[in-house]
Specification:
about 40% helix, homodimer
Amino acid sequence: MGFREHLQDVVRSVDGAVACSLMGMDGIEVDTHLTDELGLDLKSLLVEFSTLFHGARAAAADHEAGAVSELSIQTERLLTVARLVSSEYFMVAALRPDGNFGKARYMLRITAPKLAAEL
Amino acid sequence: MGFREHLQDVVRSVDGAVACSLMGMDGIEVDTHLTDELGLDLKSLLVEFSTLFHGARAAAADHEAGAVSELSIQTERLLTVARLVSSEYFMVAALRPDGNFGKARYMLRITAPKLAAEL
């Protein structure tokens, strides 16, 4: 499977998932599968959240808390879960607020190594 | 119960929890219950993570994703879960990486309104 198929697989497998992206740590998107059900500008929001992933990494490193493996943000309209793929890339899934958060975490955990193997 | 008792209650109720704080959105701590088992400078790390909460709020607001209710960060040595208490305050629990994440989210969800009522 290519990147896109892995990202589609996450969206298909998680109740309430509307998008899944592979992103560079610099906020540049590598590939995205997007169902666009929310009426939000999801892509630019995910770019902004990559800044937060970056910030979390810096804060954790400064305080010897080790590498950041996962970051999740719940808002009124959106639940996002991001997971480290490699030192330069992470993947992020966006769900409706009532989406299956536990399943999203699980799917990212098993999919991240598959993406890493293709980078 | 006062703030401290609520924070203690979270730490006591969640397997693997080592600290729970009530923080201002400006990163200033209101109160903390800390068991200090990790050998990390947890308090200053939590202050840094409050900057991330702030950043997530700004990003979500800019993109009409609504208020940020929860933020979680998993690192190699620490799992933190933060939850909005009011527009100016949030609470954050720190767990060992193998701590009970689901229980922490649940405890913050039921404890945040109790803290809000005392602010």
